[in-house]
Amino acid sequence: MTDVFVVGAGMIKFGRYPDRTYFQLGAEAALMALDDAGVSIKDVGAVYASSTFNAASMLGQKILQQIGQTGVPCINVSNACASGASAVREAFTGIKSGLYDIVLVVGAEKNPSGMLGGSPVAGPPPEGLFGSVTMPALFAEAGMVHANAYGTTLEQFAQVAVKNHHHATMNPKAAYQKETPLDMVLASEMIAYPLTKLMCSANVDGAAALVLVSDKKARELGMARAVRIRGSAMASDVFEPRSPEILEPNSVTRLAAARAYEMAGVGPEDLDLVELHDCFATAEILHYENLGLCADGEGGRMVSSGVTALGGRIPVNVSGGLLSKGHPIGATGVANMVEIVEQLRGEVGARQVSGARIGMTHVLGFGGSSAAGVHIFEKA
């Protein structure tokens, strides 16, 4: 089977676009990726499009109405926050099987305003409009379980936000580019203890896109800026009734990470940087451990030591992460990959991780049930 390479990457600046549709945002990102790859929509064999709130509206087809309708298959994917990674996984499989030589993946979203949380079908939880099934409450609980087990402190959780907001000041496409010192993070509005407002992901609009190709096509186009996908893995829930899913040894993140490491033939010690799903500051620390970046219980000390900051041994969320770059849900997984691709190419300026050759992306779709996607990339 062929290797799979990324040869084009594009992402719009995340923010709010009240006068533009989600498919117009997606079309802009798609054209950026196609131009970056040096190909046109006429060269593309299939389109994979990811969205969550806009998924039922045939995102892929509407993007093609904007940039060129060629009759190719459009596969529209919705998998909560793992939508983008799921679309890339399907595109990877399509090329790996030999079915296509060039595919386009686009993630686009216009998030509704306000807090994103429990199922609108089920209605509000019994304890009120802000209840334990909301995302802030769920990840706050997971953080408190971790704190009780390992002594993780409020300050350590807050340091995740300090770090990621600092990284975002070097990313012109981040929704927010503002330093937030520790005292500012701790003093911001409490949403669900220990999560303050500045420890919660930014609810924004956005779009990102990738062009994936076969080994043969990558060589035709030129390998100088190609990035190989060494590992691509998805996982869903394993039944474990004892504690929050995010803490379980068999959690979906751990399953997906193990599969990706095995496919790639590398381990966490080989990674140069990671873009992971910091939907809340507590989640980042938990995922250090779920991805094997440190042993269980060491996540808090890992962030406070500076290991995961730019210039540290394993920089995490140098883009600013979901906390500051923003979290347009259906686009998030693709945007994480755009960051890794551009890092491995050495094209991100002040936030460049020196000598980066292998990077990982991770997303967790969570909302009563779970999906996780982990991808490992290598500079060609």
UniProtKB/TrEMBL annotation:
Domain Thiolase N-terminal: from-to ranges: 4-110
Residue stretches making up the Thiolase C-terminal domain: 252-378
PROSITE patterns: THIOLASE_2
Database matches in Pfam families: Thiolase_C_1 (PF22691), Thiolase_N (PF00108)
Protein's UniProt keywords contain Transferase: yes
UniProt keyword list: Lipid transport, Lipid-binding, Transferase, Transport
EC number(s) from the headed UniProt entry: 2.3.1.176
Coiled-coil annotated residue ranges, if any: none
PANTHER family noted in UniProt: ACETYL-COA C-ACETYLTRANSFERASE, NON-SPECIFIC LIPID-TRANSFER PROTEIN-LIKE 2
Protein name (database record): propanoyl-CoA C-acyltransferase
UniProt source species: Sphingomonas psychrolutea
